[in-house]
Amino acid sequence: MKTLIIMRHAHASTGACNDFLRKLTLEGIEESKTAGLNLKHAGVIPELIVASSAARATETARELATVLQLAANQIVFDGTIYHCGSSELLTLIRHVPDNIKVMMIVGHNPAVSELVSLLSSHQHSLHPAEQVIVRSSSENWHDFDKYLHP
After folding, report:
1. What's the CATH number of domain 2-149, 1.10.10.10, 3.40.190.10, 3.40.50.1240, 3.30.565.10?
2. What is the largest CA-CA distance in the chain?
């Protein structure tokens, strides 16, 4: 069984002149910590976090990893997530090593919301720091989306 956690980055500042460099607000930092605690209490701990390399997503992932007590090598920052769509996110998921049972993506709208909509067959619009857990009975990530559990 594979478990995917899809998360939109937490609240970010609006004042930066470069969107890629926008950092989390104090609210966003607290949201990230709370998201990590919620996962911990639910017993859903990612073995791997793949996050956008945009500042707000890297900060979100690092806050999560601290709360979840993950090692630095359990976080991967991927520059392609910043500009990709849901189909590219699904392709990224399909290439995760099969020894990973639980993985998390930290990205941006509209891609993360579109991915949740694609995998659930229901329209979703993720709010900052919102996360959705998707489970599949697949034994590999390559066909994760073919064996989803509602």
Report:
1. 3.40.50.1240
2. 44
Residue 68: which of 109, 7, 116 has the closest Cα?
7
97 pLDDT exceeds 70?
A: yes
For the entire predicted model, the pTM comes to 0.95
DSSP per-residue codes, 109-147? TTHHHHHHHHHHSS---PPTT-EEEEEE--SSSTTGGGS
pLDDT at 15: 75
Q: Are strands 2-8 and 131-136 parallel, antiparallel or unpaired?
A: antiparallel
Distances in whole angstroms, Cα of residue 35 to Cα of each of 30, 45, 63, 99: 9, 11, 9, 24
- Which tokens belong to 150? 């509602």
